[in-house]
Structures are given as C-alpha cells and as structure tokens.
Specification:
Number of strands: 10
Shape: elongated
Distance between the termini: 29 Å
Number of domains: 2
Oligomer: single chain
Order of helices and strands: EHEEHEEHEHEHEEHEH
CATH topology of the largest domain: Rossmann fold
Structural class: alpha/beta
Helix content: 25-40%
Length: 272
C-alpha cells in the first residue's frame, strides 16, 4: 500500500514561501506558531493583545502576540538516468524511492517536482517514463552519461527547497563537484543506490568483463583472490570518498545497498 511508503521529512531552515502549508515559515500573520511579543503599533490587532505583558510594562505600552504562519515546501527528486543505474535491481529501487517520496510529499501537501536526467532533462509526469528509460538502456550500445546534470540549475528555483538526488554517484569528480555546487543553497538528500553484484558478484578463477560505470568502457580481467580484494577495496574507498564529499557540502547521504527500507528512511530525518 502507498501509505506504507510514506515518511515524514523536515528541513533545518525556515521557509519564506507564500502558499500555506505545514512547514515553519518566516511570514507573520494568523498561524499556530508563536513568534514573539510586539508593540501594538507595529501590529495593531486588538484580538491579539497580551494583557499580562501590557499591564506589567512600566511605560504602559500595549503589546500583542505575534505568530508565524506555515508554508508549503518545494520538494524535488532528481533521478540519475545514466547507464550504470540500469544494472541489476537499481531501476526497481529508483521506482520505490520515487513512489515513496511522491506519496510523502502528497501527504504533506507540498509542491512536488520529479525529474529524470539523461542526455536531456525530462519532467516525470508518469512513472512509466522512468521504467521505459532504463529498459531502453539495456537494448542500446550507446552509454548514457546523464550529461544533463551539468544543467541542473535550469529546473531548480532560487528559493530554498529540499532536493532528493537518487543515483549510484558513479560520477566523475568534476560532475560531483559541479552538481553539488549548483545545489549548495538547498537542503540536499543524496540517496545512494548501490548493488552488491557490482563488487561482490565475481566468481574466482574466471575471466569476467568489468564495466567502468564512469566512462562506459569495458575491459576483461581474470578474477584472482588478489584481484577480487582490489575490487572490494576500490568500492570501500569510493564510499569513503563520497561521504567526505557529501560532508563538504553539508549534507548526509542515505545509503541503500540492494534494498529499499522505509523504516531507515523514516529514521534518517530524525537522526541526531
């Protein structure tokens, strides 16, 4: 059921949006969040006069209670449509995360904007678009490097938003820094989809074809215990490198290896 995929997200910043919603806002007015006590002349509303503060003021000034309204949040999901994302069960995981985020945004009555990035940028109106894209990647020889990510700022507004980036992040250093620099003014949630078959699915003492997820090139290797250890170590170092980069851009990744776990996603936003 869709309800089983819903999680409650939050942001560390206060919004400044006009549309009414459920998130804390900088806008003063009729609302449920007490803000401060202000002089009556700054907000002349007799209905909100604070008698206790007014009667205790030595200068006999009138005070009113100020409240902040709640606003809608812009939520974006940016899906990496590169060829490495078509491996194993990654397309299935993409669909689960996309469905979960969409259901959660609908539950909070926020604005939802999902996009697929391949050689161009496509707004996702139906989930079939994502399914067709990854299915097509399995039948073509051209490697999709999701070059449209270099133009990510085209679809992101200046006002602060929460942005989920769904990818395996098998990107070049240049692409990683470019995308995160462009999005650095927002609250970023990198959802890292990895498949253990990429580094743990090699049978010893056999020739296997290794696919470079960053460049799309292939090479043949003979899997020995030492070679397998080198592959494992490369992925461990890659994970460390990614965590450091995310930290440098003040964001915390959500790692999803082989599976989607809604309880882990729910806990993500309430971790210390």
């Amino acid at each position: 059921m869709i309800a089983d995929l819903v999680f409650d997200y939050k942001t560390p910043f206060v919004l400044n949006a006009l549309a009414d919603g459920e998130h804390k806002s900088k806008r003063q007015g009729v609302g449920s969040d007490f803000y401060k006590k202000s002089p009556f002349l700054s907000e002349p509303n007799p209905a909100r006069i604070d008698l206790t503060r007014s009667l205790s003021d030595p200068f006999e000034s009138l005070y009113v209670k100020s409240y902040r309204q709640r606003s809608q949040l812009d939520v974006f999901t940016l899906i990496d449509g590169s060829s490495s994302m078509a491996i194993a069960n990654k397309p299935e995981l993409v669909n689960l995360f996309q469905t979960s985020i969409a259901a959660s945004v609908g539950w909070r009555n926020d604005n939802y904007n999902p996009y697929l990035f391949s050689d161009d940028i496509q707004e996702i109106f139906q989930s079939e678009l994502v399914n067709k894209h990854f299915a097509a990647l399995l039948t073509v020889t051209k490697y999709d490097e999701s070059t449209a990510l270099y133009e990510v700022e085209r679809v992101i507004p200046q006002r602060r938003s929460i942005i989920f980036i769904v990818s395996d992040f098998h990107w070049s250093e240049d692409k990683l820094k470019h995308v995160f620099t462009c999005l650095s003014g927002h609250y970023l949630v990198p959802i890292v989809l990895w498949c253990s078959l990429e580094y743990d699915g090699y049978t010893l003492w056999r020739f296997v074809q290794i696919h470079d997820a960053e460049t799309g090139s292939n090479r043949l290797i003979f899997v020995t215990p030492k070679q397998k250890q080198r592959i494992d170590e490369a992925f461990k170092q890659r994970r460390i490198r990614l965590n450091k980069l995310f930290q440098a851009f003040s964001c915390r990744p959500f790692w999803a290896v082989d599976e989607f776990n809604i309880n882990d996603l729910r806990a993500y936003f309430y971790a210390p």
